[in-house]
Design brief:
With 96 residues, the protein is of the alpha+beta class. The chain has one domain. The chain contains two helices and three strands; from the N terminus they run E-H-H-E-E. A three-stranded antiparallel sheet has the order 1-2-3, covered by helices on one side. Helix 1 crosses helix 2. The longest helix is centred in the middle third of the chain and has 16 residues. It is elongated. The termini are far apart.
Length: 96
């Protein structure tokens, strides 16, 4: 199997009362929930990758869609970018 590193960038217009845009615990929870579906499984058999190439670019969009849906409920915070790192020096980024 492959091991990827996922990097997310969030954005929003207002910080909360303690100066946070979003708690990273919430971001990690959403990332874990999105990645758990793929973990230790043959990705090519799982929707949507049973019909699209599981490229780093498509994986970045998959993670964007999964995480952003959960963040949308959090005070208008949204993802601005997701990077899927295949190696220490190569990645694919998705920005809507």
């Amino acid at each position: 199997g492959h091991n990827y590193k996922i990097q997310v960038t969030v954005q929003g217009e207002e910080l909360d009362s303690i100066g946070l845009l979003v708690d990273f615990v919430d971001v990690k929870r959403l990332l874990h929930a999105t990645s758990e579906y793929l973990d230790h499984r043959f990705i090519n058999d799982l929707p949507p990758f049973d019909v699209i190439n599981p490229s780093a670019e498509n994986m970045a969009k998959y993670f964007y869609d999964g995480i952003n849906a959960g963040l949308a409920a959090e005070r208008g915070v949204r993802l601005s970018e997701v990077k899927v790192w295949e190696t220490d020096v190569t990645y694919a980024a998705y920005r809507p």
